[in-house]
Amino acid sequence: YLSTKAFKDKTHIKVGNVTFGEDKPVFISGPCCIESQEQLIKTAVEVKKSGAHVLRGGAYKPRTSPYDFQGIGKEGLKILFEAKKITGLPIISELMDIDSLDSFIEYVDIIQIGARNMQNFPLLKTLGKIQKPILLKRGLSSTVKELLLCAEYIILQGNEQVMLCERGIRTFETYTRNTMDISAITLLKELSHLPVIADPSHATGVRNLIKPMTYASIAAGADGVMIESHIKPDTALCDGKQSIYPNELKSIIEKSNQIRSVI
Ligand code: PEP
Ligand code: MN
Fold first, then answer.
1. What is the pLDDT of residues 71-93, one digit of tens each?
2. Which among 20, 47, 173, 210 could disulfide-bond with 29, CB atoms 3.0 to 4.6 Å apart, if both were Cys?
């Protein structure tokens, strides 16, 4: 299996001037959804100031309800690209279907495949044929093995730049949006050479849990963390309750670096 430790020791993925899979954890932050030029650029400038390495922003949103805000599509990718020019931060956004692949190749640095598309096999095979880093999120009710096999689908076609993301799984617990499977982070690091990213925002759905779950993820061996942030989380069109203020990132990153240095 191409994703296993037996095949390769470590994969480094270089994006802009950061490298996933190296000593320092990489921080990805930004809003769940790109809402407007003003909202995104303001958030981008703030997350950059706080020390984030990569800017996120959803343009095409996989919403549970068709009545919820669906994202602004290609316009969003253009705004994200604008924010990249202003801040110098590389950018990541979620791709939902093959039809929009060309725009993603043109605009983004990392293509995110969301939990709901983890097992979209035709999509995975297509992503295997391009040369761009892919962040593959664990499915809502998927096992670690299923996640690894989906990474395998991409690598098998020739694209080795795959990162795995633990974003929580469905359990009976209702205080949190999902249950963050911290052990999966360590397991994935043991089983695979691919960088592992933690997403405490979607894993918990609770702002106050972001900080402790970030530290737990770093202690478990995560190569990076993706945290949703918004300049006005209370007015966010999506996932405001699990978004932090960008300036909160600074101390989270500093402490994470300290934790990393002692494990
Ligand atoms: C997201 O990161 O915006 C997202 C929709 O996450 P997930 O696919 O993990 O639900
Ligand atoms: Mn979100």
1. 999 999 999 999 999 999 999 99
2. 47
Specify if 100 maps to a domain: yes
pLDDT tens column, 224-254: 999 999 999 999 999 999 999 999 999 999 9
> What percent of the chain stands above pLDDT 90?
100
In a domain, 7, yes or no: no
Cα–Cα–Cα angle for 47, 96, 105, rounded to 5 degrees = 70
- Is ligand 1 within 6 A of the CB of residue 138? no
Average pLDDT over residues 203-225: 98
> What's the CA gap between 221 and 185, in Å, rounded?
7
Q: Which domain holds residue 132?
A: 13-262
Probe ligand 1: pick from 167, 210, 227, 228, max atoms within 8 Å of CB? Answer: 167
Substitution candidate for ligand 1 out of 29, 32, 80 with most atoms within 8 A of CB: 32
Q: With respect to residue 157, please indicate whether it lies within any of the assigned structural domains.
A: yes
Name 169's bridge partners. Answer: 179
Contacts of 69 (CB under 8 A, 6+ apart): 33, 61, 63, 237, 238
d(C-alpha 241, C-alpha 10), whole Å: 35
- Count up the domains in the chain and report the number: 1
pLDDT tens-digit series, residues 5-20: 999 999 999 999 999 9
CATH of the domain at 140: 3.20.20.70
- Of 136, 140, 116, nearest to 128 by C-alpha is 136
Q: Is the dihedral of CA 119, 28, 62, 158 positive or negative?
A: negative
Residue 1 domain flag? no
Q: Of 104, 142, 107, 143, which Cα lies nearest the Cα of 123?
A: 104
Please name the helix (run of DSSP H) or strand (run of DSSP E) that holds residue 200, with its range, or none: helix 200-204
